[in-house]
Structure formats: C-alpha cells, structure tokens
Design a protein that fits this description.
The complex is a heterotetramer of chains A (358), B (152), C (380) and D (158). Chain B is of the alpha/beta class. Chain B is 22% helix and 27% strand. Chain B has a domain of 89 residues: Beta Polymerase, domain 2 (2-Layer Sandwich). In chain B, strands 1-2-5-4-3 form a five-stranded mixed β-sheet, with helices on one face. In chain B, strands 6-7 form a two-stranded parallel ribbon. In chain B, 39% of the residues are buried. Classes of the chains: A mainly alpha (358), B alpha/beta (152), C alpha+beta (380), D alpha+beta (158). Chains in contact: A-C, A-D, B-C, C-D.
Amino acid sequence: MWSLSHIANEIHRWLNDLFNPTWALIIEMVMAGVAVIGLFAVLGLVLVLMERRVAAWIQIRLGPNRVGPFGLMQSMADTLKLIVKEGLTPDGADKVMFNIAPFIAMIVAMLLMAPIAFAKDFQLWDLNIGVLFVTAVSSLMVVSILMAGWSSNNKYSLMGAMRSGAQIVSYELSAGLSIMTIIVLTGSLQVSDIIHAQNNGWWIFKGHFPVWVAFVIYIIAVTAETNRAPFDLAEAESELTAGFHTEYSGMKFALFFLAEYINVFIVCAIGATLFLGGWMPLHFGTDNAFNQAMDWIPSSVWFFGKTFFLIFLIMWFRWTFPRLRIDQLLNLEWKYLLPISMINLLLATAMAILGWHF
Amino acid sequence: MSKELLKLRITELFPEAAFDESGEWLNTEVPAEKWPALAEQLKADSHLALDYLFCLTCIDWKTHFTMVYHLSSTKFRHNLVFKVKLNREKPEVGTVCHIWRTAEFHEREVYEMFGVNFLHHPDLRLLILPDGWEGKNPLRKDFEDPVNMIRL
Amino acid sequence: MYRQTEIVQEKSPGIVGESGEFTINVGPQHPATHGVLHLVITLSGETILKVEPHLGYIHRSIEKMCESLTYRQFIYVTSRMDYLSAHINNHACALAVEKGLQLEIPPRAQVIRVLMDELTRVASHELWWGAMAMDLGAFTPFFHAFRERESINDIMEETCGARLTMNYMVPGGVMQDIHPNFQRRVKEFLKLYKQKIHEYDELVTGNIIFQNRMKNIGILSPEDAVSYGCTGPTARGSAVSCDIRKIYPYEIYDKLEFDEVLEEGGDSFARYMVRIREMQQSIRIIEQLIDNIPEGEFQAKTKAVLKLPKGEFYTRVETARGELGVYIVSEGGTTPYRIKFRSPGFSNLSVLDHIARGSKIGDLVAMMGTLDLVIPDIDR
Amino acid sequence: MFITNYIKEVWGAVKSLATGMKRTIYYFTHHKEIITQEYPDNRDTLVLPERFKGEVVMPHNQDNEHRCTGCTACELACPNGTIKVITKFDLTPEGKKKKAIDKLVYHLELCTMCNLCVEACPSDAIKMAQTYEHSVFDRNQLTKILNNPGSKIMEGVE
C-alpha cells in the first residue's frame, strides 16, 4: 500500500545502491533536516492561517480573505513582510544573546521533532527514551525566553521572561505526571511501543477515568508550557505590551512567533501520540471489519487529523478565556493540577497493576 | 435644609461670611487665610456634612482671581458654593486636599492653568502641561500662545 | 510648539534600583491604557508600590477654546471630551445654556434627549465591556460587544447624521426631529439586545478566571469614593448613591421608573456588575419611552444669537462614566466668560493610585478597566 | 468538608469554562452570524442615511443657479472658521448694485460636521452631502469652492 514509510524505504534503498552506507546515512540526515525545515515553514504558514480563521469565526468576523483564494496566501504575505522588515537590535541590549535567543527557540523546536511518528513506521529517530527526550528537551525552551528577556534590556521583557520561567518550570511537573500515566499503562518510553500498545483502542478510550483526567491535565499544562492564552502571561499584551519579545522585530520576531506555533504543534502531536494513538487508526478490539475499514485511511491522515484537532482545542481556549494572573496561574498548578495529577498517577498505577484497563 | 437654615449654620461656624443668593445655590465668600480652617469645619459639622467636593476651579476676573469650591453633602443632598478671592499678583490659598482627596488633582490643575499656589499641597507639580510650562498659565485671560491659539 | 515626551529619569542606571524597586512607564502608547494615558508605575517585583499619572497628551484646552465660542457653537466641542457619551456631554451643555436662558423645553424634545442619552449609555457600556474583557486577555467579547454597539451607532447615524460626535442637542431641544425609522430601529435593537444579553454572562461574567481576576482587587471604600470625588459606576460599586438622574433629576427622569444600581463590595467585580446591570436599567428606560414619544415641537423657539444673563450656571448630568458638571460663568455676552467642565474621568483617575497600591501589575489593567477611563475626558 | 468543597470548586470552574466554550463553538459553526461588511467591495450597495453628515455642498439646479445670497450666516455660525464667504456686487438689470457671492470657500480639513451652518442658513443654500471617502494626497484639495464657476443666484431667493 502507498504510504510515507514506503517512500522512505524506497529512498533508503536507492541511496544505498548509489553510495556506500556512511554517505547514504549522511545524505539521509541532510534530507531529514531539509524535510524538517520545510515542515516548519509549512506548519508555520498553515497554523497562522488556521489561528486567524478560527479567531475570526469565533469573533463573528470573516478573517483573512483578500490575499489569494479564500485568503490562503495571507500568511505568505505576512512572512514576506517580516523578512523585508528591519531587524532592530536595541542599543542597550546584550547583542550576542539578543541575536542568538530566537535561534535557540527554533533549535529546541527542531530537536523535539525527532521522536515524533508522523505515520506508520515513519519517524526520524525512534529512540528508546522517546517520551523522556521530549519532556527533557521541551524544558530548554525556557532558556531562549529567559535569554531574550534578559538581553533585551527592557523591563517589560525581563518581567515577561521571569513570568515565563516560573510558569514553564511549574507546569512541566503536571505535564510530566500526566505523561507518566500513559507510560505506566504502556510500560515503555519508546514512542513506537506506546503507539502499538493502542492497537486495540486508544488510551483515551480504554484507559478509563485516570487517562481522561491525565488528558485534561496534559492539555492545560501544555497550553501553559507553550505560553498560549489563557496562560500567555509571558507576552500578556495588556500588561507587558509584548512580554519577552517586546524588543524583537522583523525575522527575529518571526522566529519566536514560528517557534511558538511549532511548539504547539509538537505538544499536540505528543498528546495525540500518547492519548489518541498517534498514527494508529481508530480500532476497537482486534481483527474485525470496523478496524479493517479504518485501516484504509492512511496513517498520516490519522496523525495529522488528531494533532490538528488538539491544536484546534488549544486555539479554542485562546479565543474564549481571559488571562490568568501570575499568582493564580501558580495557584492553579500547585494547588489543583499537581495534587490531582499525583493522585491520578497513583490510580493509574493501581489500575495498571490490577489490569483493569482493556 | 433650606437656604436660610444653611446660612444660619454657616454664620455660626464663620460669623463674617458674606452671602450671595443670586445663583441657584448659596454662595459664600470667605477670605483666603480663613478658608482651610473653615473647610475642615464644613466637612466635620454634623448639620452641613459637606463631604463631597464636586468641583474646584478658579476664575480669572482680570483684577483678581476667585477660587470656586462646589460642595455637596451625600447625606443631606444640599449644595453650597464657597468662593475665595485671591490677589492676582500673588495668588495663594491653603490646600484642602487633606479634607477632600479629590482636591489634590483639581488643585494641581488649577496650579498649572492659573498659577495659584496652594500652600501645604503635598505634590504641587504640573499635571497636564508638559515640563517647562511653569509660569505660563493658559487659562489666565492675558495668556497668548502665538503658535497654537486660533482666534475667531 | 509640540510637546515633548516626558522621560522619567531613573535614579540608578541599571534596570533595578538599589532597593529593588524599579519604575516602568505604562503608556502613552500601551495596549491597556486605551488612549494616551501615561502612568509611571513604581514596582517591586510584580507588586505595585505607586502609580503616578502623567496627563495631558491629548489636552486641547477645551475650556479656553469655549471662551471664544458662542453658546450655540461650544456644544460641539464637548463631543470631543468624552467621545463615548458625546450625547450626554452635549446634553449637559444644552441644559446649562437653557438654565441661563430659562427656556422651557418641549416635551417631545425632552423625551428624545433622554432616549438618546440612554442609548448612548448602553453603547458606552458595551464598548467598555468589550475593552474590559480585552484587557483581561479575552478578545472575543470585544467583537461581540461591537455587534450590539454598531446597531446603536446605526440608529444614531440615521437620526443625528453621525456615529460618534453627533452634535444633536442644541439649546432649546434637538437639532432635527427623530427619523421616521427611529422607533422601529430601536425596537429591533431591543430585540437583538435581549437575544444576546445572556452571552455576556456566559462569556465573561460567569467565567471562573474572570471572577478570580476581578474579585477582591482594587477595593474602594465608600468614604474614599466620596472623598476622591468618584462618581458614576465607580462610586456605585462601593454602594455610594450618586446617580444624578435620581438625586437631582433633570428632564423627565423623575417620571421614569428605573433603579439606581448599587453594589456592595467596592472591588472591581462590583464596579463591573454595576455597569452590566446599568445597561439593563437603560434598556428599561428606553422601553418605557419608545412608544410614548409625545407629539409636538422638537425644538423651542430661540433667538438666533443667544445671550446669557450675567451670572453663574452649573448643571450636572450623569454620563456613562459619572457626574459631568458644566459650570458657565457669564458676563452677559454672547460667549461664556469662563467654562469649567467637571469631568468624571478626572476624579475617577485620581483614585487609581489609592486602590492600586499593593496589588499585582496584572490587577492594574483590571482596575483601570473598571474605572472606565476615557483619556480625552480626563485631559479635556 | 474540605474534599467535597474542593471537588465542588473544581466542578464549578470546569462548568463555567465549558459554558464559555459552548458559546464560542456556536459562533465558530454558525457563519450566518458573521457581521463583517466587506467595505470596498460593497461600495455600490452601501447606502448612507440621508441625514449623514459627510461634507457641506451647495446644490445647483440645471441652470447653474444656487440659493446663496451671501449673507454670511454660515460663516458666523461656524465654530472653527471652516467657511469663508467672499462677496462681490452684481449689477441688477435696473442698474442697482446687489450683493452676491463671489466664492464660498469651504475648508473640509477644518470641518467637524456639526451641521450648524446648515441650520443657520436662511435660504437653504447649503446642505450636507452623504459622501464619505474624503482622503486625498494633497491637503490643498480639501479646500473647496462650493459655488460652481459662473453660477448665479436663483430667481426669487432673498
């Protein structure tokens, strides 16, 4: 059957025929890198357009509809504008850090792409600690934000960065704990294992109450971790104008902007992998007609469908809720999410030991 | 309370008050040096209870300034007007912003617009006008701004 | 001669002073200030130690301008003060001139004026509601509020010929009779409003995040509210009865059935609820009047050149933000000798420092939002 | 009870958030509620109310005649010097001098659309037009002369 893994294998074989294995590997790596960068660009364009459309429809507006058919070229035009704009570096800024920070944000986002399974057997690096890798690397994001905030030599930026630091560090806990729930149920940190464990039904269906709770907590925590409303305190515009990227303009701003959307994509992809089965089609039980019918839909469609559903959910939050205050944000984490997710992890463990899940 | 009763009460507090009943509300003229002490009494007095200063302004009469204090009582709902005549060359009057907090901003506005000096005001600086406008008081009748003024 | 931006000098060259305090400039261009308000905030971490307003970025010296305008002309300037309740400002000025002329206003004009005032009040509160939610990070209510506000603006446009600065009130009545469609359009608006009013609660009022952001911040005691000269919803949120329409009724307000909205508490949420409930009271007034507009003249006969007798005339009206006082000192000429506008925003702003101390910077926007500051009204 | 209160609190919070999300998803799916007007595209169908104050114009009839007597009532009524009436003296057929307007200069850039000039005009010579696209590249184009060249006063207007 035609699939992404099929194409990948064909290319692999073809390259191995032409070159020796070392060169083939190097070329493959370069190709993967180019593919990731290409995916970044496409995702950036698509997600920005999607956000603007979702926002517009929720806000009883039309949204972008002038550039290209149905406004599809709007984000292209925006990108062009951002590239052409002058990238200012403020006088008092720490120039090296100021210029490096947006790239660090991008590099972190790129690293996070590695263990994501986009389709059946189509994955950059199926390392055995895949989920741990994701949680570890995603916490590096805060470094770029702190660098940007500090080096801008602007009080608004600094406040935004400090808020963001407190926020990301604390919300990683409950995000990690809710991921742990799935790891306990699966018994593996490897992404492919987690997906294969959902062969007879996604965790959200067969995991009962603890997984539902874990899913809700995960969504809340990653919304906070990616600094999106209602947890966008790092860039709370009515308080801190634009938070940590107040002083950024042009392409450097665009990189932050892009990194935010890529991060949203990645956390949603991880969420889809853990709770909604990744590329795994909707299965109930084993070997029945329904499952076979579902298998006809390509696995990449399943993956992107689930991911974009979660992205929509996060956008939906953003355009509905007001922003929290910094102390309420930390209250929510330490007084509500963390205790709940700890108890939930205990429940999930008990359930895994007793074998109550399907 | 009717105007007559109010008059009686004010006379009790301040015997040399001069009244003017031509307007809608009772006008009382008070000398500048007596004003802050009287103001304190006006708020504290249980029959007057003038706890709400709803308008504080100044009028430039070319020969002199008149500070106008519009006072009201949220308890009895009567309104009284107090006027303080000031010397145009050296306008000075005691502040009332410790009695009615709203006077702090209003007095700063009068200070910059008319140049009236409010004694013992905690923070008498320009509020609306930019730095460097000290001494030029736009709402005085003899003020001329050659750049921005449109005369019709 | 253009004014230069005030640059606040810091004591220490670094970002944070020796005592850990630092100042930030909120405004004159800042998303939360809705205009050119400039606040210099002294902070310690996220906690506000002091708020110091620097005003005057939109000061046009309207009081000085009015001294050279005739009694017919000066009304239009006041639309530019509190542009969200332009009708009510015009109304106050017209009332002051009428008080001087001792004019009797035809009943039809009175009813039209009150109707327009209340429509303006609803429109102003709609905008405030949207902007308030936007300050707190919820963008959607802003657009939903504008939907209702637009339909009011359309009504205004049809009858007064403009959407924001109408200049519809003239001494003696209103400039033109109401448009033939007016009653139908207002009834349509009432229907729309009633269909959509529950959304306000669903989207914002009932929201747990919003309530947590608003409750127990910016607490203003009734004594302080009076002492600082707060009026309008700001003071009524502290249970200070100060509705001029009730206390010193003008036009036909004494014949109308409506409640003065009072809320205990004095926090931002109380001020928010006052405005939300006040909109419903305004709707109630409109409903009472819309079918009962008396026939007759819409303008009293006035002379072409108005001359006020020598004396002082003070009128107070209730705008959407509080008490607006117009103080005219006349020397008997065609132009006022001195005009003072006692604007509600000016006094309401002065309380900001008092209520903001000790709270977080995120609360500052919530407090500024509930004070409902309109900067041209403050600067005049 | 602490635990029940805690659960109640969480439940109430979730419920209030769900109410808001229900409202927004309603608008997301109901595109009929969209109120945006696509302005430059709907220019042909856009009708402004007849009282809309766009700019002051002086209507002329088909014989290029207007109703302005040059009485300067509008100039006096204008609060900010928008209108300037420049008069001249025409000779009537009987040989008498008669006051008439040479030019009625109107500064659109100063106008605040307050309608006072239209109210003040005793002969209904000027009115408000419903135009709304006033932006031009040169400020001088905003200074307009309201009476057409070669126009004269209508018969019977005093």
